């Protein structure tokens, strides 16, 4: 909206920044025109009232190897071939007309290739008026009774509007009437049949909510942009048919509110739809002439029809427009019929026409680029500069895209197959445009006095006339009144030429006429007095009415005073409550702060607790690890020490045995000296034993000679005396294993418990011992020893060898053979033992 700036604030902020944050996408509609000829190939199908589908024409598909697919495009609304101009207007332009009446701007443009129906949609034809005539008609239908007199609003040539008083406006009107030959009342003019029936009366529509206490005026401008030059189509230049002057182009300027406008462009004030049409057709005619004269191609020019609506509130009496420029609101609706969007090659233009076409294409290209950049900025949050200034079309409408009003576009398409490729480009542009959002214009109501002044004044006038009529008819108007009748019956004076002093004819006639006139005068005076009295009484009545109204007003004032008091009390109460609420808010604030502090504390304590718990956990696990390690160390060292102790005990035992033997020997020698009296020179010798190899099923390795207990070799039984005799010791617990290989012991004394008597008769001892081997089989051990007589008269067995008899599962045995030489417990296998000492110790343990 181009609102007049206030006196002291000459420049308003750019509209974009001042406007609200609500945004609407650009409304894009699609209109499909009917095919030119029935038999033409069609490439567009309307699928729903929002979607169309494009089919590639057969020829194209074949040529391009099926490169083109069927594609669908969606719009705010799709209008099929049967859509009437009226239906299209209802949806597309009506809301924009309502907006302009409510002080909001609008931009509506048609886009498409040449022949797609842009002009048909925008302008239409007789009987099928397009969006432009319909918009004008709706505006005038809505503001008709509230229009200001001509020249009350006056454009100030800076895109603003001034208000003139009635007298100046009247003078301007008279000036214009004397200059032009245009008849005063356009309604009585002969209307060009070309635009006579654009809209049928039954299609007329009207906007709601028109402010009745405002005065309105409509101004129209019509420009053409060709080859990036702006031409004013309404400029009145005398046409020289012999040497026509080329039209002068106009420039764009920015007004104090940063709105773009065409400087020096003619703005024609129009008072009716017909007059506006007349102006429009004037422009069209000029356009046609210029195109023919300058050999232009009309499809390459953009035409812009601007409807400006000035509105200002009425004064307190409701009679005249308020003489305050700042109260004037100007809103505008731009109706743009863009040039054909097709590429240059299609038009087969040449030379300068081609260059021009290039420029026109350039302006549509700029429009596309601007839309692209706007979309990118909005979608990606970028802040790229929109190149509005690159073409006149985009520069002129820059404000709309920056949020100065609603933007709508009607995409016109011709479904014929020839247009397919161009239509595809049009669709892509349309789709992209839909994604651009434009800030919603804010509502700015016109501030004025109390509403209804115009109506009240009208009502008063009507009431007065009615009453006067009641009492003898109105004083004015064309209807015959008493006074008029009297005036009409006023007798004309007869010829006053007196022929002589005795003229008896003229004088009496004159006297009679004068007397009659006198009588009528008297009657007129009476009538006048009567009317005056009546008026007086009416006025008195009005006075008394006024008085009673004044009384009523007084009464109302009294009530108002009371209400004021009440209001004051309530205000005080509100103040008190406000203070209280402030206090409470303050308290809440403090409590909130305290809560925050506590919460902060709680959080930090919790944090600390967590970290401590973590530390504790870590320490605990460390401790457990340590414990396990220590336990391991303890078991290791215990085992080591146990072994060491055992080794030391054994060594000590051996040492003690040797000592004992030496002592024993000494004692024996001493005894021999004492009892027998003869000295034996034999030195005691430690018994040396031969290795006694007994054949065994399993290997029994020979062992080194261990230090055995002291024996007397003298008491050894001679082998030749009767062979070796064995004590065959087999405990009762033994199990019969059916062992094939059995020890061959002739003359053996079999015992199941060690017996001293048997030992005294034999010199060899064998113990058959059974135990469970590591592989779970029972193994039999033959523990062999030699029997010696001890010096004390007893027997001692010195173990010398162990034979092991073992049965094996053949499968397990083969597996075992493959395994290592060591047993499962890490000790050497029994058959591999080489250390006799160890074997002996084992045998001792077994006994
Ligand atoms: P453009 O302005 O896009 O070049 P026009 O509006 O001049 O196209 O249309 C070309 C022709 O097609 C005109 O004769 C017009 O009457 C016709 N036409 C276009 N749209 C329609 C429609 N919706 N219904 C009937 N005729 C149409
Ligand atoms: Mg056209």
UniProtKB/TrEMBL annotation:
Coiled-coil residue spans: 525-629
Bias type Basic and acidic residues, positions: 677-695, 826-839
Places the protein is found: Cytoplasm, Cytoskeleton, Spindle; Midbody, Midbody ring; Nucleus
Disordered: region residues: 1-23, 674-737, 808-839
One Pfam family named in its UniProt record: Kinesin
Compositional bias annotation for Basic residues: 1-15
GO molecular function annotation: ATP binding; ATP hydrolysis activity; microtubule binding; microtubule motor activity
Function, as annotated: Component of the centralspindlin complex that serves as a microtubule-dependent and Rho-mediated signaling required for the myosin contractile ring formation during the cell cycle cytokinesis. Essential for cytokinesis in Rho-mediated signaling. Required for the localization of ECT2 to the central spindle. Plus-end-directed motor enzyme that moves antiparallel microtubules in vitro.
Designated name of the protein: Kinesin-like protein
């Amino acid at each position: 909206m181009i609102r007049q700036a206030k006196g002291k604030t000459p420049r308003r902020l750019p509209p974009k920044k001042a406007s609200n944050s609500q945004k609407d996408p650009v409304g894009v509609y699609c209109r499909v025109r009917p095919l030119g000829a029935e038999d033409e190939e069609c490439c567009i199908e309307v699928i729903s009232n929002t979607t169309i589908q494009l089919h590639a024409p057969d020829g194209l598909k074949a040529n391009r190897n099926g490169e083109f697919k069927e594609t669908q495009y969606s719009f705010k609304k799709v209008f099929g071939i049967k859509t009437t101009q009226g239906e299209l207007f209802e949806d597309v332009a009506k809301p924009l007309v309502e907006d302009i009446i409510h002080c909001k701007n609008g931009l509506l443009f048609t886009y498409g290739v040449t022949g797609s129906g842009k002009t048909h949609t925008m302008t239409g034809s007789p009987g099928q008026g397009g969006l432009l005539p319909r918009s004008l008609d709706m505006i005038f239908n809505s503001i008709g009774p509230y229009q200001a007199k001509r020249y009350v609003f006056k454009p100030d040539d800076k895109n603003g509007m001034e208000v003139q008083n009635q007298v100046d406006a009247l003078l301007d009107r008279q000036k214009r009437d004397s200059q032009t030959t245009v008849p005063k009342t356009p309604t009585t003019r002969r209307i060009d049949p070309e635009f006579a029936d654009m809209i049928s009366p039954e299609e007329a529509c009207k906007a709601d909510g028109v402010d009745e206490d405002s005065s309105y005026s409509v101004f129209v401008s019509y420009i053409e942009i060709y080859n990036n030059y702006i031409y004013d189509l309404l400029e009145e230049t005398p046409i020289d048919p012999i040497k026509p002057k080329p039209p002068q182009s106009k420039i764009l300027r920015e007004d104090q509110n940063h709105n773009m406008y065409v400087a020096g462009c003619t703005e024609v004030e129009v008072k009716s739809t017909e007059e506006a049409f007349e102006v429009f057709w004037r422009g069209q005619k000029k356009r046609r002439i210029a195109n023919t004269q300058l050999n232009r191609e009309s499809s390459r020019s953009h035409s812009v029809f601007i409807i400006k609506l000035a509105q200002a509130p009425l004064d307190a009496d409701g009679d005249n427009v308020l003489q305050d420029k700042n109260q004037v609101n100007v809103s505008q609706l731009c109706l743009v019929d863009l040039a054909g969007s097709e590429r240059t090659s299609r038009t087969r233009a040449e030379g300068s026409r081609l260059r021009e076409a290039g420029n026109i294409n350039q302006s549509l290209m700029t429009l596309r680029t601007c839309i692209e950049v706007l979309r990118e900025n909005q979608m990606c949050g970028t802040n790229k500069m929109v190149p509005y200034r690159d073409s006149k079309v985009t520069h002129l409408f820059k404000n709309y895209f920056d949020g100065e009003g609603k933007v709508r576009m009607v995409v016109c398409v011709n479904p014929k197959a020839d247009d397919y490729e161009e239509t595809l480009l049009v669709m892509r542009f349309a789709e992209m445009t839909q994604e651009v959002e434009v800030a919603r214009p804010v509502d700015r109501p016109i501030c004025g006095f109390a509403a209804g002044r115009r109506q009240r004044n009208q009502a008063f006038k009507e009431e007065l006339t009615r009453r006067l009529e009641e009492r003898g008819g109105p004083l004015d108007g064309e209807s015959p009144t008493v006074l008029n009748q009297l005036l009409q019956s006023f007798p004309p004076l007869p010829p006053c030429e007196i022929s002589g002093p005795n003229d008896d004819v003229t004088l009496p006639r004159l006297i009679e006429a004068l007397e009659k006139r006198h009588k009528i005068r008297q009657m007129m005076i009476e009538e006048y007095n009567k009317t005056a009295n009546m008026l007086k009484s009416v006025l008195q009545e009005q006075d008394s009415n006024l008085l009673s109204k004044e009384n009523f007003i007084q009464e109302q004032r009294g009530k108002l005073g009371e209400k004021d008091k009440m209001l004051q009390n309530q205000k005080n109460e509100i103040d008190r409550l406000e203070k209280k609420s402030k206090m409470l808010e303050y308290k809440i604030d403090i409590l909130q702060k305290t809560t925050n502090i506590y919460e902060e504390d709680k959080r930090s304590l919790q944090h600390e607790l967590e970290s401590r718990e973590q530390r504790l956990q870590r320490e605990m696990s460390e401790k457990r690890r340590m414990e396990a390690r220590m336990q391991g160390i303890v078991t290791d060292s215990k085992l080591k020490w146990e072994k060491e102790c055992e080794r030391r005990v054994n060594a000590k035992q051996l040492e003690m045995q040797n000592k004992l033997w030496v002592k024993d020997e000494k004692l024996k020698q001493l005894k021999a000296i004492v009892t027998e009296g003869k000295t034996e020179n034999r030195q005691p010798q430690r018994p040396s034993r031969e290795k006694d190899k007994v054949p065994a099923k399993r290997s029994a390795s020979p062992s080194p000679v261990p230090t055995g207990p002291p024996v007397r070799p003298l008491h050894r039984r001679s082998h030749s005396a009767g062979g070796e005799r064995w004590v065959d010791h087999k405990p009762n617990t033994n199990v019969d294993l059916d062992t094939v290989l059995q020890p061959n012991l002739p003359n053996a004394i079999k015992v199941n418990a060690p017996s001293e008597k048997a030992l005294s008769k034999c010199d060899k001892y064998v113990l058959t011992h059974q135990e469970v081997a590591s592989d779970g089989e029972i193994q039999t051990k033959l523990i062999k020893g030699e029997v010696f007589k001890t010096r004390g008269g007893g027997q001692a067995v010195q173990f010398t060898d162990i034979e092991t008899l073992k049965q094996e599962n053949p499968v397990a045995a083969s597996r075992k053979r493959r395994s290592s030489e060591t047993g499962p417990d890490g000790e050497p296998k029994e058959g591999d033992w080489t250390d006799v000492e160890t074997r002996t110790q084992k045998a001792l343990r077994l006994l």
